[in-house]
Design goal:
The protein has 170 residues and is α/β, with parallel strands linked by helices. The protein is built from five helices and six strands, in the order βαβαβαβαββα.
């Protein structure tokens, strides 16, 4: 079984005078990313691959998580196809993962991540919520297909973890 972890970037600062791709994390976003990384480590959930949008808020999110994981040899891979694209582009990025890769953490944006989630597990398998993936929400999916054969309803939802719930646990 392979696992795909979808993580929406942490809370960004919309009040800066920079382009969308250059928006940094807010203080809350940095705290949430740190909590997600610490939670992953505590749960012994270590990805084999870290894929990230090149947007500053996504890169900052994945770098903070990387620091919390303390895993030698793990490399953050930036891919422009993970920024402001559709699910077919996201699937193309995932299709390039080696078959030996078992766990992928993909850090990106809405609405693409929610669209991919709905595509992979089906609307009926998801909680009925207005916003499935607020900032720093982590989805864990499992599937038996290959990375280059991610098709409709091929995955099973394992969990959705919200940064707010991690804050309440600490």
């Amino acid at each position: 079984m392979k696992e795909l972890w979808l993580l929406r970037h942490a809370k960004s600062d919309r009040n800066t005078d920079v382009s969308d791709i250059e928006r940094p994390l807010k203080k809350r976003g940095k705290r949430d990313a740190k909590n997600v990384g610490a939670w992953l480590k505590k749960q012994h959930l270590i990805p084999d691959a870290l894929l990230s949008s090149p947007a500053k808020r996504a890169i900052e999110t994945v770098r903070i998580i990387y620091q919390e994981l303390h895993v030698a040899g793990l490399v953050i891979q930036e891919d422009s196809r993970l920024y402001a694209t559709g699910i077919e582009q996201l699937k193309m990025v995932l299709a390039s993962c080696p078959e030996t890769t078992q766990r992928v953490l993909l850090v990106g944006h809405n609405p693409e991540l929610e669209d991919l989630l709905i595509h992979l597990v089906g609307k009926n398998a998801l909680p009925d919520m207005e916003k499935l993936l607020p900032t720093a929400a982590l989805v864990r999916l499992t599937f038996t297909t290959t990375w280059d054969d991610l098709h409709e309803e091929c995955a099973q939802l394992l969990s959705i973890t919200y940064a707010k719930s991690l804050l309440e646990q600490s």
